[in-house]
Design goal:
The chain starts with a strand and ends with a strand. The chain contains 6 helices and 8 strands, in the order E-H-E-H-E-H-E-E-H-E-H-E-H-E. The protein is of the alpha+beta class.
Amino acid sequence: MPYIDGFIIACPEANKDKFIAHAGDIDPLFIEYGAARVLECWQENVPKGETTDFFKAVQAQEDEAVLFSWVEWPDKTARDSAMEKMMQDPRMDPQDNPMPFDGKRLIFGGFETVSERGNSGSPGYVQGYVGSASGGARDAYRDMCDTMAGIAMDHGALRALDCWGDDVPDGEVTDFQRAVKAGQDATIVFGFVEWPSRAAFEEAMPKMREDKRMPAPESDMPIDGKHMIYGGFLPVVTMTK
C-alpha cells in the first residue's frame, strides 16, 4: 500500500489560477522523483465547526480557500529518498517559483496506509478528513476504515484510502496536532474517499447512513469524533506516473 504525504493549505481565492500554475510547475517534480500520483483539491463543501475545522487548522482568512492535497509514493523509502533529492533541486527554489500562499501556515505530514479500496484515477470530488486516535488503536482504526470503505464503495465511491500518522512534525504556527486538538498520546489519522462527482456523493450519503453495516453513533469509536475535521473538495490538479 502507498505511503502518503498529506497537506492542508490556505490560499487566497484570488490566487486560484496562480496556485494551479504553481502546482503545474512543482508537482511534476514529485512524479519525476518517483511519486505515483499527486492530487491538489480546492474547497467545495467544507463546513465550519465550533472548535475545529479545516479553516481553523490553517488559520484561513475570509478571502482564503482551503486545499486538501496529497502525494502517493510506492513506500516510505522511496519518499525519503525523493525528498532528499528534491530539496537539492534548483527548480524547488522559492525565489524562482514563489508560492502563491502563506507557506508558514502550510500543514504537512507523512502517513502509512492501513486501508485501501478501489483504484486511483481522476475523481470529480473528494471527501477528505483528518482526526486523531490513541496510539494503541491502530488495529481498531483499520477495522473501522475497512468497514466504512466497503460501505462507500458499495454506494458508488471510486476509491477509499485511510492512513496512520508516521512522520507528522510539530509546526511553529500550524500543524496536524493542533488542527484536531490531538492529545499527547494520540496519533494523527488522514484519509479520503474519491467519488465520480459531488452529486454522486450526495446521492450516496442517505443510503450509507441507512446501511446496516454503518456503526451506531453511540458506538465506541477508535478516533476522536468531536475534533475530527472533514469536508468536500474538487480536484484542480491531478498527476499520475
